[in-house]
Amino acid sequence: MPSGEYDPETVESKWQDRWVDEDTYAYAEGGVDPDTAFSIDSPPPTVSGSLHWGHAYGFTLQDFVARFERMRGENVFFPFGFDDNGIASERLTEEELDVRHQEYDRREFQQMCREVCEQYEAEFTEKMQQLGISIDWEQTYQTISPEVQRTSQLSFVELYDEGREYRQRAPAIWCPECETAISQVETEDDEQASHFHDIEFDVVEGEESFVISTTRPELLPACVAVFVHPDDDDNQHLVGEEARIPLFGQEVPIIEDERVDLETGSGIVMCCTFGDQTDIEWYQAHDLDLRIAIDESGTLTDVAGEYSGLSSEDARERIVSDLDDAGALLDKRAITHTVNVHERCGTSVEFLVKDQWYVELLDKTDEYLEAGRQMDWYPEKMFTRYKNWIEGLQWDWSISRQRSSGIPFPVWYCGECEHVVVAERESLPVDPLSDDPPVDACPECGHDEFVPEDDVFDTWATSSLTPLINAGWDWDSETEETVLDRPELYQFDLRPQGHDIISFWLFHTVVKCYEHTGEVPFDSVMINGMVLDENREKMSKSKGNVVSPDEVVSKYPVDAARYWAAGSAVGDDLPYSEKGLRAGEKLIRKLWNASKLVEGLTDDAPEEFDHADLRAIDRWLLAELDDQIETVTAKLENREFSKARDGLRSFFWHTFCDDYLEIAKGRARDGDASAKYTLQTAHRRFVKLFAPVLAHVTEELWREMYDEGSVHRAAWPEPLGLEADFAAGETAMAVVGALRKYKSDNQLSMNAELDRVQVWGSVQGFEDDISGVMHVEELETLDEEPQIESVVTGVDLDYSLVGPEFGAQVPDIEAALEDEAYDVVDGELHAAGVELAPEMFTIEEERKYVGEGEMLEAGDAVVIVQHGD
RNA sequence: GGGCUCGUGGUCUAGUGGUUAUGACGCUUCCCUUACAAGGAAGAGAUCGGUGGUUCGACUCCGCCCGAGCCCA
């Protein structure tokens, strides 16, 4: 029995505990009909300690869907994955244990990661449960687990067998300090002091020479081309010639390309293997030679001739001084420029050439685009991001990462002929660094020594398999094919994703799963925006504007946070808002207080009541609620949480509490069965309708008032199918509103008695309700319009009809109306030489009451109040 | 630099060719009415980022400009 004030602190944690203890959200395993399974493929968050808004917000939106679908009778599969296979977890482990991963072999280090992450997983789980997310905690996985490693390697083997993967030498971003390859997203720009060296190059044919400016003279031995901008008229004649590199002597082509920056240096630029990103682009675009002059420890190679063996620092000094001696160094000046550095250690990155594995994409982009088109996108506009990403693809997907921790490639190479030997499917997962290859001798050349691949998979190569991990995809050695352990889950009904990461994560997942199953993995995709701070700026540690979910939930009810989270159109960013949270708190309190009242009024309410005997206002309320149910259901189906929330809130607060409840409470106290039945029926339905968003308070109310089971397992309400006179109801409420305003304007209390009220308008069946709630002694409905003098004040046109009919004549008609140069003849409006049909206009008039009492306008109705003195 | 998205009262937000532009928060005034004063009633407050164009008619469609965000370079 709800009583006193609502105490969210106690109530919310009570239900969170019970939901977990009672397995309220358990997925019913075994023989599930695919039609009634509703599966969510929630992207596993990186487990690195703290839970941030990205997690909390994304999962709250998923939870709205999960709870809604569950109540509609779906068997909801809402799993949770811990992504502890990434760089973040590697760093976490190193920091926590004060070790370096290089000091351990891979399996040992992974074991350490697993142990460290376990504590964080537990913390993470607890925090997710504190947010009331209806995850089935029996359905979890860790991306570092042997099972997931097996899935990842199986995916690799399958794609390799299908000819979708190949190995090629390609540039990798390398941190010489950490001695590891890093991805582009781990680099950042940094302003650094450096020097420009103006170096003279000779043209091979003839006497001419030109100058290039470089900050990295030590790359001269790696120079493979020289570039001139197409708009550079002064140097255009050089294009097609060859240049000779000072000191090193190699001859390289001079090529035209618009990526040359005319503003910097001399406008002529050398291209090396590899100085920067542009060098890589040029290498790929112009099919240039490779001259690898610097190795992974930053030491010059044989390509650098006499400078071989020097560190790049030392080599730079020597080369600069030798250039000077040779007269080729024309100038040296200090500058600052932007360099690409590793975000973790600040070291400038190098570009190395490595053998890497690729998944072929470019040949099937049309299919992948079509796959994306087959999914429902919420919001629809996000499909264009997917589309742009695919259409803009220029390279296949590199899945090699030169790190020591991660999931290893299940591959060995013949020590003699480099033939690729892939692990047997049955034996997965393997680690080639510890395990033997499946053959004793090379099938190609018979050689019996193998070199293990020591790279690991790109993290997306694993993250992109979550639908397959969740559906239990595996190799069946009996039938020799891949099978799904839980086929009913696939395709997944819902894939949630942050909009910042659609291109990486979602795209790769669609591609991988599509390749493995021939099917699009998702029926629908729901894209969520970012949580911004109160000033609409992105939260970041460096700005110091981060508000953590923990802080919020300790200050506000979780349901208030959920209410706030439902406040943006899906896909739009959501600004953090204390106001939004307070509005949520207010709604919770209103719902609680109204529930207390309903409870007090309906203890002996009839379970059943013949709808034909319902009083007009009760019938009207239930019919309006029918409409509201249809609206809320449609909004939730379309993931329009904000509209569902606001529509329901407004209907509950204003129509139910302010209008109906005020009237019905008097009747219910007088023992009116129709009112009691209606109050209880409507209230039950409200509790259910609010349940997906206000998960905790509705559970408390439901179990206190209606049922021992969870509201989250109760059936979503269906419309009762009642007919009612909506117009009369609306008019009656307008009359009540007008009377309230009258009392307010006349500084009367709301329960002040009114002597006599006359109503002209259709309020049949509502008369007693009006007089009851407004304390009217005598209420009379008029059959004839009261003594009113009407003054025509103008004519209103219905432009949606007049516009298409009269087009360019409309301004003339308007001018005629303005000048009052019109007539109404037989209901038609004659103006500016044309005749307008009756439905095209309305005569606007001001009504003046000349009889006794005061006239009020109440929608279509007219109300006359006669009140003492 | 390229692509995408967005710009509506002080703040957040609804509104994709046709009323007086929606609602919430905040603000002002009034009202203790036995569920709730953390409530109720009323009110003020917007030239819909700017500028051209299409149209009888533009917050809505198109061009350009300005500003913000995201992704890619």
Task: Note the main sheet.
Answer: 7 strands, mixed
CATH superfamily of the domain at 8-156 and 461-562: HUPs
- Indicate the CATH class of the domain at 8-156 and 461-562: Alpha Beta
Average pLDDT level: 88
Counted beta strands: 36
Proper CATH architecture of the domain at 8-156 and 461-562: 3-Layer(aba) Sandwich
Model description:
The chain is of the alpha+beta class. Among the domains are: 8-156 and 461-562, Rossmann fold (3-Layer(aba) Sandwich), CATH 3.40.50; 175-352, Isoleucyl-tRNA Synthetase, domain 2; 740-866, no CATH class. 37% of the residues lie in helices and 22% in strands. The chain is built from 23 helices and 36 strands. The strands form 12 sheets. Strands 7, 8, 9, 10, 11, 12 and 13 form a 7-stranded mixed β-sheet that branches. The chain has a 4-stranded antiparallel β-sheet with strand order 6-5-14-16. β1, α2 and β2 (75-77) form a beta-alpha-beta unit. The longest helix is centred in the C-terminal third of the chain and has 29 residues, at 641-669. The radius of gyration is 37 Å and the shape is elongated. The chain starts with 7 loop residues before the first helix and ends with a strand. The mean pLDDT is 88.
